[in-house]
Each structure stands twice: as C-alpha cells, then as structure tokens.
From TrEMBL:
Location of this chain's protein in the cell: Cell outer membrane
Organism: Pontibacter virosus
Transmembrane domains' residue ranges: none
Keywords: Cell outer membrane, Membrane, Receptor, Signal
Major subcellular site: membrane
Domain Outer membrane protein beta-barrel: 380-784
Pfam families: CarboxypepD_reg, OMP_b-brl_3
Signal sequence annotation: 1-16
InterPro entries with a match to the protein in the record: Beta-barrel_TonB_sf, CarboxyPept-like_regulatory, OMP_b-brl_3, Plug_dom_sf
Gene Ontology terms: cellular component: cell outer membrane
Keyword Transmembrane: no
Stated name of the protein: Outer membrane receptor protein involved in Fe transport
C-alpha cells in the first residue's frame, strides 16, 4: 500500500510536466521489412553534435522523449544501407509529439560478375545494458535446437549436468520472452532441446541487471526472445528437418501461423521433435584409506531419446484503443524420455590390477509436462511515455519417472558366478507457481524517468522419491534412500528506479529493490523441518559517460542473490551406479553477489568490458569421497567465498563487403575457497576464451556461416576443467523469392568438444572424468514461409523469476 501511495503521489506531481517526443519507423526500400538495430541520432538543426541516439526495435520503431521545443534533424545509419538525413523536424508547445512516419532506407549494393553483394546483418549488437545475439535467419540455427544455440553464445558455458555459466560464473537466470522458465538444469535442457532454433529471434545477455529485474541470478540473465507475429492478415511458416550424430537419428517438424485483424493479434506455434543424444565417458578415481589405496576405473555409455506430441504455444492480444490492450498466452509441452546409462567398472588395490568387475545397466523413463499461462495488460496514459503494465502467471510442472538398475558383481580372483543386485526407483515431482506483478514508468521531463513496481510469487513443490530393492521381482522399500520432501516459498518484492541526465555528457540510473522471502521445507520421511524468512535490499547504480562521439564509458554496480533451486533442497539420493550418488541439501544457504562493471565503447562498435564479482556462500556441486566403500557422493553445498575478475572484448570486423565477422575475447581470473576433509582448498585459474563468428555471402545468394570457439583451462568450485575447442559450419540457400529456405549444418566437425574435468578431493584421492556428449552431428532443415501485409506493433510481456529453481 505504501508503494502504491508513493507511485500515485509521484506520478500526480509529475503529470503536469510536459516534454516533446519524436518517433518514426525504418524499413527496407526494396522489401518493406522493418530494419532492426539501426542507429538514429537526434541533432539540433545546423549542428553536428548528437543530443540523443537510439536503436530501432524489432518492428523498426524508434522514439526520443524529453525533447525540448525547437527544430531538429535525424541522422540514420545502418550497415549495408545508405545513410539518410531527415531535416525540418519540429517540436513545439502546441505540437509536443511529432512523428516522421515511415522512413525507407536504400540498401548499398554493388554488382560483381552478375552477383549482388549486400551488407550482412551483424550477429552481435552491444546495447547500453545488454548484448544482443541475433539468431533469426542464420544458417547455424537451421536444424539445431535452442539448447545448441544457447551453448555457443558469447561467454556461455554449459557443464556436464546442463548447468549454465556466463563468463565463467554460475548462477544464470534463464528467461523465455522475458519470462522465467521455472525449470531445473535438467528440465530446462529438456525444454530447450525440444525447441527449434528456427523459432528464436535473438538472445539477450544481461550481465548486470538493474533493480527492475528480480534479484535472482548472481551472474546475470540470458533472455531468449522468440519470433513474434509481425504481419497484418495471415502469415507464418512450416519446417521439417533431420539430424544424425553418428549413432542416432533425430527429426524436427512444426510451424507457426499468425493472424492479425482489427484489434486482434493472435499466434499459434507447434513444434514436434524426436531428440536423440548421449555421452561416452571414462571415470578414474583413487580412494586413499590409511596406508592403502583403491583404484576405480569406469567406462560409460549413455543414450537417450525424447519424443512427444507437438509443443503448443498460443496467444492473443486485444487492443481496446491505441493506449490500452490485454493479452493472454499459453504454452503446453509434454514428452517422454527413454534413456540408458551403461557402465563397466574395474576396482583393485593397484593400477591395472583389478580384483572386481561390476557391470551396471541403468534404464529410466520419464514423462515431463509443462503448462505455462500469462495474462497481460498494458496501458499508455499520455504521449510522454507514461505506462502501466500488469501480469498474472500460473505454471504447472509435472515429472513422472521411474528407473531400473541391474548390477552384476564379478569376483576376478575366484571366477565364481556374479552376484546380482537389482534396484528400482519411482521419482514423481511437481511444482505449482503463482505470480503477479505490476510495473509503472513515468518520464519526469529534462531527461528524467521514474520506474517502480511490485511483485508477489508463491511456489509449492512436492518431491516423492521412493527407492526399492528389486530382488526376485519383489519390491522392498529401502527407507535409507527414500524421502518425501515438500517445499513452500513466498517472495514479496518492490523496486524503485530513477533515471536522470546530468548534462549532455552524463546520465545516471540508481535503483533499490527489496525482497522478503519466507520458505518452509519439510521432509515427511525424516520429519526434518527448515523454516526460513529473510529480508534483503539490492541496490544498483549505472553511470553512462559520453566522453566524445567516438568514446563512451558505462559504470555499473549491483547486489544480487542466488537462492537454492527447489530440487537442491531435497535431501534424497539420486542413484547412478553402486559407487556413485547425488544428494540434495536442505540446509543450503542463498548465495550473495556484489558485481562491479566498467564498459568502454569505441566508435559505437567496439566494446571492452571489465567485471569484478565477490560471491559469498557460493552454491556449488561438491564431491565427497568415502574411501571405506570406494563411493563418491556428489552433493550441493556452500563454498564460503569466490572472486572473479574478467575482461571481455567484442570486436566486429568487416573483412569484405560480403564477409563480416564478430569476435569475442574473454580473459578472467577465478578463485574459490573451500574446506575439504578438514583441509583448506584454494582453486584458482586464469581462464581465456576466443570465439569468432563469420558470415559470408557466396555467389547465387548462398550464405555460409562459420563458428569457432576455444576455451582455455577453467576452475569452478572444486573442479579443474581442461581446455577444449570446436568448429561449427552452416550453409543456407533461399528459393522462390526467399519463401523457401534450405539449410545444412555440421557441428563440432572435428569432435573436439570433450569435457575433461578433475576434482580437488584431498591428498591421495583422485576423481577425474572425460565425457563427450555427441555434439558432433550433421543436419538439414527445409522451411517454407508465407507472409503479406503491414508490420504491426509488437508487445513485450513481463519477466518472471522463479522457474530456474524448480527441480534438481
């Protein structure tokens, strides 16, 4: 109530202030399509000094607010198009809002041996607070999944369990169209692997979010924006593709249809796929117990297949008038997983002298269901940009899984028949998520803007993990490895942001977010209860300094939190083989992060980013060695402290008119401090990454795309990661006036994307593994597009921050 009163009083006081607005739309003079990410500068008539600059959005729209009365001109530029100037743009007290209508840019083309060479759209764009990686229309996206594309984005690293890191740091918040996915690493991977990259427009990488965003996510936000309805009337596309990874065949098919007429704007997307994959791995361990050491050598092969009915995403918006609209969106996805994990393990007292052989075959299946719904309102209350948005969200997630484990133990010293140990697990879990939020924006004149909002969310989860001995086809409950865990969490939040220009060269944004968390976790099996409530404040500060037309510096600071995901708090055991388990931790504490960044932008093109992070109570997977039983338990714990210092350079280069490259170079230092077996451990590493993307327009309008990535040695928690590199290639050709597209791609063509990791587990102990997840594959996609009409206005929905934490 206090925030609502403050909102009303501030907006009421500011309502009388007036300022001008200039807006317009950019489009291609040949195709009529909107031009995204073009630069528009606002200048005083007869002056070369830019007062403001803006980038066009996905619909080609741009606008300038807080414009004082006077005469202006617009300078417009974009790679591959001729520059354009619009003069005699006037703002007055009688007419504070001016629109220049639709502006058409003429492509800069040259003829070379009867082949038209056009400027290519850049794949990476650096905005004031985020990096935008364009996916739409790229050959590398064809035939690939959203997971594949995300894994190759600048600074993104995905570990062996599907956990996502950004610039070498864990704790990434994943959003889909500005809304959280509400999934664990495993379920998020399942969702993204079932989504065609053909439906992605771009990926936004936000390394240091403002107070407007939820404080969840210690290393930043990755927001995946899907393609939206953009044409009047009926339009859409249909696609089909296939892929092969050397052992398994997969396919994908689907399409989308959009319909806009009068006040209605509706869409329907369908995607169906048979996803296949697996891993080939070796695990080597040594367990020291007093004066003796046990050696453990394991070879593993895993395979999976996921298939289900089409995933459906449907929605509609209704505009009451130019200022008020409501919309509803629903997403439903269900699929069934069949997987196996087959291991052969040798155990002995000396290297290459095994005394025992274990053949362990695991077979599991899981039915995954996700239903997400959103009700959205947007209101525009004046021509200055005063807006109010509200969202209601409901998410229901269900997992119904079971597994059989068949273990055969051979004594190599006696040659006797093997001992058998058969096990069975039943692991249903479910999540219900409710959220409501409201956001208010009010320009205050003189380059100032107020943003404020509030949010409430509730998450209820139920995890019932049952473990059985399965001998003689009779199930006997194992109470030591069975657990029923329920969790209830409520978060109430409010934020206030103030943007202000301090002259022509300096602008500041300061914000404060408050979040109150109340949670209750209870093990119905052990009767253990963990009841928590805490209030946190999360300040943020952004300073933008324009030193000259060709040099700009941005400074930023924020405090953030990483809460444990709901599965990590569940203390049940997850079984992999007789000597390997994973276990949750109900006493896990939230992780807190202080982040400082400095971004330098040269000639509005080249970026040099310096970041520093100090993390407390780092949430990480940790190995525990039990020498007496030669067992390794991977558990989730809190590492007391970690630090990270990184330097990132983003350098786009036009090699030729028909050859553009985008290059990212990262250099960082990470340090983790932890206690293992009562010993203080320091794990630090200088990490570097080089990524280069090339887009080449060949004759016959064939587009060639190359992606090469090299990652140096890395450190995370108690793990040391070996260097690795990979190369992807894609080719795209259009037919029938670009209505039909054929794309062919090959990923990790040299099979070099191995994940080789060593764990620091104390003196005399060893835990190393080498895993390859079959990233090497070839595929093709054929897509047919149909469209006509005008570009409508696109609406963005809200953000939602709870989904990343559901599950284990």
């Amino acid at each position: 109530m206090g925030m609502l009163c403050l909102l009303l009083s501030v907006s009421g006081a500011a309502w009388a202030q007036e300022a001008g607005k200039i807006s317009g739309i950019l489009s291609d003079s040949l195709t009529g399509k909107p031009i995204e990410y073009a630069t528009v500068a606002l200048l005083r008539s007869g002056n070369t000094q830019a007062l403001q600059s803006a980038l066009t959005d996905a619909n080609g729209r741009f606008s300038f607010t807080g414009v004082a009365p006077g005469n202006y001109q617009l300078a417009i530029s974009f790679l591959g198009y001729q520059k354009k100037f619009i003069s005699q743009v006037a703002v007055s007290a009688a007419k504070p809002e001016t629109t220049v209508g639709s502006i058409r840019l003429v492509p800069s083309t040259t003829q070379l041996k009867e082949v038209t060479v056009e400027g290519l759209r850049p794949t990476i764009t650096q905005e004031a607070d985020r990096m935008v990686v364009s996916i739409e229309g790229t050959a590398l996206a064809a035939g690939r999944t959203a997971y594949d594309v995300l894994a190759t984005s600048p600074g993104v690293f995905i570990d062996q369990e599907g956990n996502i890191q950004l610039n070498g740091r864990a704790g990434v918040t994943i959003m889909l169209d500005g809304k959280l996915t509400y999934l664990s690493a495993r379920d998020l991977r399942s969702l993204l692997e079932g989504m065609s990259a053909e439906n992605i427009r771009n990926i936004e990488i936000i390394t240091n979010p403002s107070s407007k965003y939820d404080a969840e996510g210690s290393s930043g936000i990755l927001n995946i924006n899907l393609k939206k309805n953009t044409l009047q009337g009926i339009n859409g596309s249909a696609y089909a593709g296939a892929n092969y990874n050397g052992k398994q065949y997969g396919f994908s098919t689907g399409g989308n249809i959009n319909y806009r007429t009068g006040p209605w704007n509706s869409f329907l997307n369908l995607d169906m796929a048979r996803r296949v994959g697996g891993r080939d791995a070796t695990f080597n361990r040594a367990f020291r117990d007093g004066e003796s050491t046990t050696y453990f050598d394991q070879v593993a092969t895993g395979n999976f297949e996921v298939q289900g009915p089409p995933a459906v995403r449907v929605g509609t918006d209704y505009s009451f008038d130019e200022r008020h609209s409501v919309g509803v969106m629903g997403y439903f996805n269900t699929n069934k997983l069949h997987a196996d994990f087959l291991t052969e393990t040798y155990i002995g007292p000396a290297p290459n002298q095994p005394t025992q052989f274990i053949d362990a075959d695991n077979f599991n299946q899981n039915r995954f269901t996700n239903f997400t719904s959103n009700l959205h309102y947007m209101g525009k209350y004046d021509t200055l940009g005063t807006t109010l948005t509200a969202d209601l969200d409901f998410v229901k997630i269900r997992n119904r899984g079971d597994a059989n484990f068949y273990n055969y133990y051979y004594d190599l010293t006696t040659g006797l028949p093997p001992m058998q140990d058969f096990l069975y697990t039943d692991t249903p879990n479910e999540f219900d998520i409710f959220a409501a939020k409201v956001d208010f924006t009010r320009p205050l004149g003189s380059g100032r803007k107020l943003e404020m909002g509030a949010k409430a969310s509730r998450v209820v989860s139920d995890n019932d993990s049952r473990f059985y001995f399965n001998n003689d086809n009779a199930l006997l409950l194992d109470t030591t490895r069975t657990n029923h865990f329920v969790y209830d969490e409520n978060i109430y939040a409010g934020y206030l942001n103030l943007n202000s220009k301090l002259g022509e060269q300096l602008s500041v944004q300061t914000g404060l977010r408050a979040e109150y968390t109340k949670s209750l976790g209870e093990s119905l099996t052990t009767k253990d209860v963990n009841d928590r409530d805490y209030l946190n404040l999360f300040p943020s500060l952004f300073v933008q300094q324009k030193v000259s037309d060709n040099y700009q510096i941005n400074y930023n600071y924020s405090r953030r939190i990483q809460r444990p995901n709901y599965g990590q708090l569940n203390p049940f055991f997850a079984y992999r083989d007789p000597y390997t388990y994973w276990q949750g931790n109900p006493n896990l504490r939230p992780q807190y992060t202080h982040a400082i960044g400095i971004t330098q932008v040269f000639k509005k093109t080249y970026n040099l980013v310096l970041n520093y992070q100090l993390n407390r109570d780092v949430i990480a997977e940790l190995p525990e060695i039990i020498p007496e039983t030669s067992t390794t338990i991977y558990y989730v714990g809190n590492v007391p402290k970690s630090r990270n210092l990184s330097l990132t350079a983003i350098v786009p280069v036009t090699i030729m008119k028909n050859w553009e490259s985008s290059n990212t170079m990262l250099l960082s230092y990470s340090e983790f401090s932890a206690v293992v077996n009562k010993q203080q451990m320091i794990n630090d590493q200088v990490f570097y990454m080089l990524q280069t993307n090339h887009t080449i327009m060949l004759p016959k309008k064939i587009k060639l795309e190359l992606n090469g990535t090299y990652q140096g040695p890395g450190a995370y928690a108690l793990y040391v990661i070996d260097p690795r590199w990979w190369v992807n290639v894609g080719v795209k050709k259009s037919f029938m006036d670009e209505k039909l597209e054929l794309s062919v791609n090959a990923n990790d063509i040299f099979e070099t994307q191995h994940l080789i990791i060593s764990a620091l587990v104390g003196e005399g102990n060893v835990s190393d593994w080498d895993q390859y997840f079959r990233q090497r594959n070839v595929g093709f996609t054929l897509r047919y597009k149909f469209s006509k009409g005008e570009k409508p206005e696109e609406r963005k929905r809200s953000t939602l921050e709870e989904l990343n934490r559901t599950g284990n």
